[in-house]
Amino acid sequence: MDMSSYLAVGGWFIQVIFDKYLSYQLQSWAADCGISHEMNRLRVALLRTQSVLHGAEVTPSLSYGSLPWMRELRDVMYHAEDLLDKLEYNRLHHQMQESSSTESNSSPISAFMHSRFRNQGAQASGLEPHWDRSTRVKNQMVNLLERLEQVASGVSEALSLPRKPRHSRYSIMTSSVAHGEIFGRESEIQQLVSTLLSSQVDGDNPVSVASIVGVGGVGKTALAQHVYNNTRVAQYFDMRMWICVTDAFDESRITREMLESVSSSRFRHDSITNFNRLQVALRARLVSKRFLLVLDDVWSNDKITLAIEHENWQKLLSPLKAAANGSKILLTTRSSMVAEMLQSAHITNLECLSDKDCWSLIKMIVFDDTNHLINSQLANIGSEIAKTLNGLPLAAKVVARQLKCKHTTDEWKQVLQRNAVWDEIMPIFQHSYENLPVHLQQCLAYCSIFPKDWEFEAEQLILMWMAQGYVYPDGCRRMEDIGKQYVDELCSRSFFAIQKKQFVSYYVMPPVIHKLAKSVSAEECFRIGGDEQRRIPSSVRHLSIHLDSLSMLDETIPYMNLRTLIFFTSRMVAPINISIPQVVLDNLQSLRVLDLSPCKIDRLPDSIRQCVHLRYLNISSTAINMLPEYLGKLYHLQVLNLSGCRLEKLPSSINNLVSLRHLTAANQILSTITDIGSLRYLQRLPIFKVTSEETNSIIQLGYLQELRGSLHIRNLENIDAPDEAKEAMLLVAMLGSSFHHLVSFHLSGLFGCSV
């Protein structure tokens, strides 16, 4: 992670702490616990640190001597979040006890009506806050404050040191083609040429847009250059313009360059500084002319910026409407959102090349001929080199330049072994990463814990992001929907690719993006297994382990700092009998995500009771047949996946999980939950069986206002008491209008019939 990323993430982290933990509720609780003074000091210290980071972000150059202090600040932020999260845990613990005693005196129907308007924060649990009032907690806060103030001072001092200028690493591309032939793009060339030569017009607008979308280095510009210089295309258009846009949108520069492309008098245009005058001059040049305009490397950082830029682009391109029918704009971009913003009629999604085409491109550059006869040893080495390039033409060109001056097998082997091509091209992908909003940077970096080419479902990943606090609430939409927007944005920028299998959509990171994610997250994310040879960093926070590599776990790993622990195995392999080292299990106090699904364990480790920060627990397909009662004390738990387990029932304490949003288990297991109305954030409940017991009364459903999907209410005939039946009928009528998130709603046993 470079300096600018540290600054952005540091500011984001502080804002998250403010929004999540320094609320009125927690401040009030802190006052009851006798630590309000320390909480106020923490607020002031965070504000001061945030001010320092914001000042550094707007500086055009950065001090790299401050990196050690930024790493230290990151660790302090983690510590602060853990301490405040534990304080929030105890507040929930206490509040749940108070809520339970208060609501036990109200009638079910009135409690339901009250629940529809009550403060969402008043859903918690608790014990008396003995430890909160202790000197130990106050000492922890004081130690945290001293460390934060010291680090903030160090960051401020380091940022005032002489700074290293940041130079642009990106060359401006032109319409000239470096190598006349491109490989593996025959169908794309044919489609694009056909699109550009089409005279079809959309409404009154004489100009139509075509886009080439793909990840950096995949050959978008090379393809555009090839089509731009196609003989038929050159003859078809009266005027052609090539503009390199990059990520610095400058409407005056772009307009002036368009004007210079269609005019012979450059001096006069350089003297025009007024944007409106530039547009008038451009319009005059384009009247009744058929043009081709290539906008190369168009960017947009986020949806808000995109909305603003949409109007800017419409204004910028308005003079083009004076042109003749059949005029075309061809843009290259890494973001499908940009292509949609400019209303592209044709979008070419550019995929990576095959290994064979990569090798052909290398031979063309090295030997100026794909049919050049080379000895079999060089050919074999070259083919192996091509396989390491992840199908990227840019990587093939870089490695070809390295091979061009090398003639022996030993020299080619050195190129293969060093694999230094990525050192040269990774800054291009780093630039794409740095242009992401900070929350998307966090989400993408986290994905490095998955194995290369791993296919995952969006919901699985979103729930992990939520557990880590990466999904930022907006006060209107539910967290899962915001997380889906994050996935869609990363897809639109070519960081994720979609693969459909049997009507199910999976997501996968392109190999080069997986390399990028590993690079930017190297200090915090680590995967044990496969071809990973690095030492585990002491700063690791997120760890995934292939079950074949359990022997690599030892006491040197700082398990107490882990926020993610995921076990992997091959997809088609059944759960494996393993013994997780006790040194791991005994030191997971900071854990947010735990996935034990590939492990053939028959009981949940007792040490999980200390994981008070845990939000995501997946023990699906394990041999566990009984869950401990202490599970109900994991008040922050949002996701509990029990599918495929051998459970006969759930612990009675399950209804204490007041933060639970996703509970996946067999229907017969779900139907054993009593007082399910306590799980007010629950998103899905396929079936609910009514009994004569109050704890399984239909009134319980009145609290579950967040339910999605389908709900089947069975055994309504078990409502016996006249008063309860009257309340039930009223509730059923209310459910029809209140459960507006449900796709289907089915009743059975109501007066002997089904609805």
Automatic annotation (TrEMBL):
GO terms for biological process: defense response; response to other organism. PROSITE patterns: LRR. Keywords: ATP-binding, Coiled coil, Leucine-rich repeat, Nucleotide-binding, Plant defense, Repeat. It comes from the Eukaryota. Residues 187-370 form the NB-ARC domain. Residues 583-729 form the Disease resistance R13L4/SHOC-2-like LRR domain. Residues 449-517 form the Disease resistance protein winged helix domain. Residues 14-101 form the Disease resistance N-terminal domain. It holds the Pfam family NB-ARC. GO terms for molecular function: ADP binding; ATP binding. Belongs to the disease resistance NB-LRR family. This is Uncharacterized protein. It comes from Oryza sativa subsp. indica (Rice).
